[in-house]
Each structure stands twice: as C-alpha cells, then as structure tokens.
Inverse folding.
C-alpha cells in the first residue's frame, strides 16, 4: 500500500484520528489528533502488514475483540508504539466488517489467527 493511498483514505474518513474514531469534531484536540494520525503513516502500514500476516476475518462471535487490544499485539510484534487510530485506519482500509459504539474510539472486530505453524515462522527471527 502506497502512502499516497493511505493519505487519500484518511482524507475521506474524517472521523479517524490517532486515538481511533473521534465522534465529536468540535473536540478542541480533534485537529492535533488528525495531524498525529497523518504523522503515523508507517504505523498504519505496519498494522496492515500484521493483519495480512497473522489474522484472517471471522464471522464467529467468539473471535470478537477490539482494536485497542489488537494494537498491543502489533506493538509486541514490531517492538514499537502503535496508536489505536493507526490500527483502526488499517483495519478500515482492509474493508473488513467492524462495529463501532458512539463516543468510543475503539472498533469491535472479529478476527481469527492463522494456523500456529504460520505464527512460528513469523516470530522465529524476531
């Protein structure tokens, strides 16, 4: 994914900020949170790579979790800070189904881990 494509996506999804989804665009911090998200394009790319490598979409209720929990997995995988907003943006760019609750920056997703053998290969050299 090109950074140009990510910027275009962010320009069309004004609710996305570095904290996740901002429901109140009159929030005094909204503009600085948007700028912070544009400054974290590398984080978005890493989240997209992680999603492609480690998880697949699921329809099962038992596979439901939230973006804030998963962003911590991405942090451990890449050994660097990842914002919730970067994960939310990457997830939305994948066009996977999700649920959002008003006034909450997180999204609720259903993902299933790829087979364990794939994970061993991914983490062996880390």
């Amino acid at each position: 994914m090109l950074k140009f494509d990510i910027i275009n996506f962010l320009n069309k999804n004004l609710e996305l900020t570095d904290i996740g989804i901002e429901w109140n665009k009159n929030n005094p911090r909204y503009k600085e949170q948007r700028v912070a998200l544009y400054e974290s394009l590398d984080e978005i790319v890493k989240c997209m790579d992680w999603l492609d490598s480690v998880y697949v979409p699921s329809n099962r209720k038992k596979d439901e979790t939230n973006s804030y929990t998963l962003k911590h997995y991405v942090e451990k995988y890449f050994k660097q800070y990842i914002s919730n907003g970067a994960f939310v943006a990457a997830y939305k760019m994948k066009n996977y189904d999700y649920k959002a609750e008003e006034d909450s920056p997180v999204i609720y997703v259903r993902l299933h881990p790829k087979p364990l053998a794939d994970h061993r290969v991914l983490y062996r050299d880390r």
Observations:
- The first helix runs from residue 3 to 12.
- The mean pLDDT is 91.
- Residues 3-124 form one domain.
- The longest strand covers residues 107-113.
